[in-house]
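Re: folding output
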Amino acid sequence: MKNKIFSKGWFKDLFCVFIKELLWSNMPVVAIFIWGIISVYFFPDEWWIISLIGSIVIVVLFFVLTYLSERKKS
């Protein structure tokens, strides 16, 4: 009975993969939202350009880190 299909390790791996994928896919959205709030608070006159630049940087970093992560797997 050692080879159970639904073992404790299986549930742990499933939970860790789910949380990792959930955080990885939503992290850029959260970072852009937080950066937008920070730019409005600290730079009320030029918040739109700072938000735009920050959003572009976050999206580029996300794509670069995704590429490096996939390259590391293979």
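--- second protein (sequence, then structure) ---
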Amino acid sequence: MKLPLHGWAPVLAAWLLAAPPSPGSPVVRGQILDARDARPITGAHLIWPGNQPAGSTGDDGRFVLEIPPGTDHLLVTHIAYASRSLPLPAMGDTMRIRLEPRLLSLETLVVMGPAPGAEESRFQQERQRAFTTEQALEQVEGISLIRRGAFAPDPVIRGLSASRLQLRVDGMVVHGACTDRMDPVTSYLDLEAVDRAIVRQGGFDSRLGSSMGGSIELHHLPAHFSPEPLLRHHLSLGAADALNRAGSSLAMELSRPRSALRIHSSFEEAGNYLSPEGEEPHSGHRRVDAYASLRLRPSTRSELDLLLQGDDGWDIGYAALPMDVGHARYRAAVLSGRHALPNALPATLEWKLYHNRVDHWMDDSGRDELLMGMHMDMPG
């Protein structure tokens, strides 16, 4: 009979364990049993003084050990059993060791670590170096991305995505229109328009609804009040070589003591990338994003906020999918208010009215190879 090389490993190990000790060397033999039912304990650890491993018991609970010079005790341990340190018997005697089962009862278990609350600091640090909202989110511990192309990667929290997460924008629950997850909510927010991202991992916080994986909550940059009339503006230009990507954004803000208005718009265009094989799959896109934030302070105890946002993307290529996107459109409106109630419970009353709509048109007209041999445009 011939055995492959790996087939000899168990045979060799059994021979070594069963091999008798060196002639003339003192040995100790024994068996370890459960003190309740005399059942042999397999895999009990045998340790010489000084934490020197001696061996372990076989399936029948038996062991044969060569005694090192000057050794007179043997420690026996096994999980769920109380350990025992025993003197070695006289030469030729067999040890019968019975271990008592042991249950660990802990009245208080304290776990130290960061609270599963808002992971804002890491996002704020990375947003200065990132080009998109998803790139900044990816640097938060526990978040990874599923990429189906160069645009709109799908955020994942510790391996959980889609229906196992809560995705919110300015307090609204927003669902993508595509069943293939080609338009996650994060793809409809320009990074420069995002004020903060609150990431909660795990299902420990139910304030945003039930979710197994956690939640990602994104908030637009609001307008700010100012003690004196103030006009501010911001213009930025950016480019990236890998996708021939170029983008620009313009923001203007008018602030007063009791009113504030902020308008932000951005444009982004990217070309196709080259694969390692030198191919150029359809992976570019064009995108326009705009939002306006209006804040009013009717009194010292009340505030009203109105936010309007629109985002459009065209000719979006997904190299890993059989379809591309001809047009993706997002529209949202949020009206909210806060009122302080002195000498009352609750001390603050907040309310919010919102509406959002996502439209999505899948399009494969730009592809040379078609999955079904014909064009299958699918609006949604």
